[in-house]
DNA sequence: ATAGTATGTCGTATATTTGCGACATAGATT
DNA sequence: AATCTATGTCGCAAATATACGACATACTAT
């Protein structure tokens, strides 16, 4: 044993995993889609559109906000959440690069040891 | 009063979240990258390349296999894991569609109620 | 000031994830 | 056969995620 066990993980891997985790719950996917579809920046109305309590929705909102994927601006009594499209575009590129790498030709090279 | 609380979540949202969850840990991202980089379909050698015990790596492998993102072929005494590039390409498209939707213009329309 | 409304935080309960040692299994090797 | 070797499963502990009611805060309106 005592193999190299290379450094924990690369920053790239941790970053991708972190964002993937943010999208790892239907509610958070739904929230992003909701914010993308609304022309007006809605606030807690989000909770009314999801099958979850307001408390739970707030938690999901906080998780997305922690990664800066969404932003909330206080507008008097209400809070207006919006997508951080700039960051989302960067994230999209990261995912694209990852998938491009993963789906690149010769996943199991021609002279592979097995048939998969 | 919009108490609709729409149906739990759409299949699309649940599917995207399910895959995102599979990518929500650095180890699983690393495994996919590893399989993509090796010309030969490695097996438990994967564990030797990660900072985790063999048991834990096996668990991550099972999670990826449960979603059919990777496949394992028994090759005598060893097992040969490979990426399911076909499925990965489909998944990539799902993510692309999601991000395209999320980063589309007019996230907060011109006449938005707030300034974000 | 008082009341009302939108929002977030706290505490808590339950479920899931993560990690690993110990054990079981099955094909290979002697 | 006896043994080695690669792999997976089991059981357990700790950490994290999920969900929500009750409470606190802050702004608005009467």
Describe, in plain words, how this protein is organized in 3D.
Chains A, B: InterPro entries: ArsR-like_HTH, HTH_ArsR_DNA-bd_dom, HTH_MetalResp_TranReg, WH-like_DNA-bd_sf, WH_DNA-bd_sf. Chains A, B: This is ArsR family transcriptional regulator. Chains A, B: Residues 8-103 form the HTH arsR-type domain. The structure is a homodimer of 116-residue chains. Chain A has one domain (11-103): Winged helix-like DNA-binding domain superfamily/Winged helix DNA-binding domain (Arc Repressor Mutant, subunit A), CATH 1.10.10. The model of chain A has no long low-confidence stretch (mean pLDDT 88). In chain A, strands 1-2 form a two-stranded antiparallel ribbon. The first copy, chain A, is built from 5 helices and 2 strands; from the N terminus they run H-H-H-H-E-E-H. Chain A is mainly alpha-helical and 116 residues long. Chain A is elongated and about 60 Å long. The two termini of chain A are 29 Å apart. In chain A, a hairpin with a 2-residue loop joins strand 1 (70-75) and strand 2. At the A-B interface, helix 1, helix 2, helix 3, strand 1 and strand 2 of A face helix 1, helix 2, strand 1, strand 2 and helix 5 of B. Chain A binds a DNA duplex (30 and 30 nucleotides) through residues 25, 27, 43-44, 52-56, 58-60, 62-63, 74, 76-79.
């Amino acid at each position: 044993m005592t193999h190299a066990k290379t450094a924990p993980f690369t920053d790239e891997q941790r970053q991708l995993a972190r964002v993937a985790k943010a999208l790892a719950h239907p509610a958070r996917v739904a929230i992003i889609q909701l914010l993308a579809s609304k022309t007006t920046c809605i606030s807690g109305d989000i909770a009314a559109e999801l099958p979850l309590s307001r408390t739970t929705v707030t938690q999901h909102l906080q998780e997305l906000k922690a990664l800066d994927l969404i932003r909330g601006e206080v507008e008097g009594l209400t809070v207006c959440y919006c997508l951080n499209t700039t960051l989302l575009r960067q994230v999209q590129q990261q995912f694209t690069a990852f998938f491009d790498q993963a789906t690149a030709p010769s996943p199991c090279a021609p002279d592979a040891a097995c048939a998969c």
